[in-house]
Design brief:
single chain; 65% helix; mainly alpha
Length: 128
């Protein structure tokens, strides 16, 4: 029985995943630059002016928004399925699954489908 040698991740997919990871890391850093001072201000305002059950409301609302953003960003989780996969980061997501990579994957698939449909209408052969 012949052994199957894994081919690993194709260079094109590795480059795409590198660009996605850099973009995600950059966006996460921008979020931190905005959130750190904003959280400090909201904390102070809630502490000083918050009364009764309203104390902490805006601070915790900001934390909730950040949590939702981090879930969407899903910065590191796709890496566990990407390693050695021919699909790279797309192996750990589904188009439109509510994560950033899923949104990118959905966009790429829609763009490819439009390009294929346009080429079919014009009679131009498509290559991938």
């Amino acid at each position: 029985m012949p052994s199957r040698i894994p081919e690993g991740t194709p260079p094109r997919v590795l480059i795409r995943d590198f660009v996605i990871f850099q973009a995600k890391t950059f966006i996460d850093g921008l979020k931190d630059i905005v959130v750190i001072p904003f959280a400090t201000i909201l904390f102070a305002l809630d502490l000083i002016f918050g009364k009764g059950d309203k104390r902490g409301r805006t601070f915790y609302a900001l934390m909730g928004a950040c949590e939702s953003f981090d879930r969407w960003m899903n910065l590191y989780k796709p890496a566990s399925q990407a390693r050695g996969s021919a699909e790279g980061l797309f192996a750990g997501s589904e188009p439109g699954d509510g994560s950033m990579v899923g949104d990118i994957e959905g966009f790429v698939q829609r763009h490819a489908a439009r390009r294929t449909a346009s080429a079919a209408q014009s009679g131009v052969p498509t290559t991938r």
